[in-house]
Amino acid sequence: MAFQVAGRCEDVLQYRFSDIIAKKRNGSVLTPEEIRYMVQAAMNGQAQECQLGALLMAIRIRGMDPQETMTLTRELVASGRVLQWPNEWNSCLVDKHSTGGVGDKVSLPLAPALSACGCKVPMISGRGLGHTGGTLDKLESIPGFSSQQSPEQMETILKSVGCCIVGQSGDLVPADKIFYEIRDVTATVDSLPLITASVMSKKVAESISALILDVKFGEAAQSPTIEEARTLAQSLVNVGFSLGIPTTALLSKMDNPIGRCVGNALEVIEALECLEGTGSSDLRELVTHTGGHLLWLCGKAASATQGAKLIANALDDGSALQCFRAMLEAQGVHPDIARTLSSSSSLCKAPHQEVLKAERSGTVELIRARPIAEILNALGAGRSRATDTIKHSVGAELLVAVGQHVEKGEPWIRIHYENSPLTEKQRQSLQQSISITDQPPFIPTPRIREIISFPVKKEELGTTMRREGEIS
Ligand code: IUR
Whole-angstrom Cα distance, residue 291 to residue 263? Predict the structure, then answer.
């Protein structure tokens, strides 16, 4: 039954918050004015926390249509400052968002590789929470690295280096912070419109020209199935496009850890391998594909395939590594460290290591990322509450790869730990996380399974979403 909000008038400040809660609770569509009021009331304290929680739960249960989701995104953006850049950067400002994975260090090589290809990358990243890692935590394994940069400092770094990776400043989308804290304690994090508005508002506030989304699915992702990931990706792409940012989403499989390292300092070393043109092929695949799509979206490549080649060149010819080192120096790392950092540098080493051995011979079919990440978190690599401190040296190196043959007794994982060694239960759980079968060795399927994008030509704006088929 449609529900009419009482007290409606021209001045949005005269809504009654409880009427808006009831309207959404009853399944009606909120008007743009009601959504604006919801955000303003959260900002100016007119809405009580319990009312915000009730409204977020009503949205979680009843959902929002694409128009409401777009309006919520726009109002979140309007709650704070919007970054502004020199006009000449208008078509080359790009960023990436990942829905979170295990061993996901893609941003570290991607930002400098894009910068080496002529883009400006004002990347705003987050910290790890739960079983997924955070880009800022990884970078903070490098002594001196500072993720706190003002918009003015960001502009200076973008002028001289072309990319920066920073934390979100308090004046950017402050309403999202209020909503997120309440979502976190009211079981409303997993709401499609709330995730969409939260993610996209921060990207819109960055004033970028193009955005790539890595929407993960699988056991170690937020979305267990490709169908759920596709729905989220379509919602994100929809809002991006409606608010003027050409956006493409890649759906990528997240069951095995990305690359061969999990844990902050170890992942930086692996990112450096990628920047040196070597290292894990699945990491390089994600970096070149996400970068390739961005170069295409912002007109620096004739196709995503050509863009991927340009990114691969930047990794192979050392230009991306140079940008990475220059970014570190600009963000506080001592020049002697920044200018020489390489995959053979010793970075924040854990005092202890334990190697586990394969319990049978056969082919490695799967290495389950989620239990590995949960055990590493328990050893201090991650945080379960936002206020927890982390141990950058804690992590794991995979010594075997999916698809290869292993012999019984061969070492398959090396755990790096500080003061608390593995318990017997953790050891058993790690042994259960590798699946070794009798099938013949195989080449793993690529991680990226589907691409969701809108046409970027202006005359095609607003037409239906184009989804390219499975890519092999
Ligand atoms: N990241 C965000 O920025 N917002 C969200 O709601 C989630 C992840 I879930």
Answer: 24
What is the Cβ-side half-sphere exposure of residue 252, based on CA atoms within 13 angstroms?
29
For the beta carbon of residue 435, count every other beta carbon within 10 angstroms.
Answer: 13
Per-residue tens of pLDDT for the chain, all 472 residues: 333 343 334 444 579 999 999 999 999 999 999 999 999 999 999 999 999 999 999 999 999 999 999 999 999 999 999 999 999 999 999 999 999 999 999 999 999 999 999 999 999 998 766 767 789 999 999 999 999 999 999 999 999 999 999 998 889 999 999 999 999 899 999 999 999 999 999 999 999 999 999 999 999 999 999 999 999 999 999 999 999 999 999 999 999 999 999 999 999 999 999 999 999 999 999 999 999 999 999 999 999 999 999 999 999 999 999 999 999 999 999 999 999 999 999 888 899 999 999 999 999 999 999 999 999 999 999 887 777 889 999 999 999 999 999 999 999 999 999 988 999 999 999 999 999 999 999 999 999 999 998 643 333 433 333 333 333 2
Domains and CATH numbers, the chain: 3-81 (1.20.970.10), 82-170+184-342+448-460 (3.40.1030.10), 352-437 (3.90.1170.30)
What global pTM score does this model have? Answer: 0.91
Distance 195 CA to ligand 1 centre (A): 5
Question: How far apart are the CA of 271 and the centre of ligand 1, in A?
Answer: 24
* Per-position b or e across 361-379, b if 16+ CB within 10 A of its CB: ebbbbebbbbbbbbbbbeb
- Closest CA to ligand 1's atom 3: 199
Q: With beta carbons less than 8 A apart as the criterion, state whether 220 and 255 touch.
A: yes
Distance, in Å, from the CA atom of 295 to the CA atom of 159, rounded to the nearest integer, reads: 19
| Alpha-carbon span 168 to 118, nearest angstrom | 24
Cα–Cα distance list, 90 to 87, 114, 117, 209, 256 (Å):
5, 15, 16, 7, 38
Please list the active-site residues: 97, 176, 183, 198, 202
Ligand 1 surroundings by CB, under 6 angstroms: 189, 195, 198-199
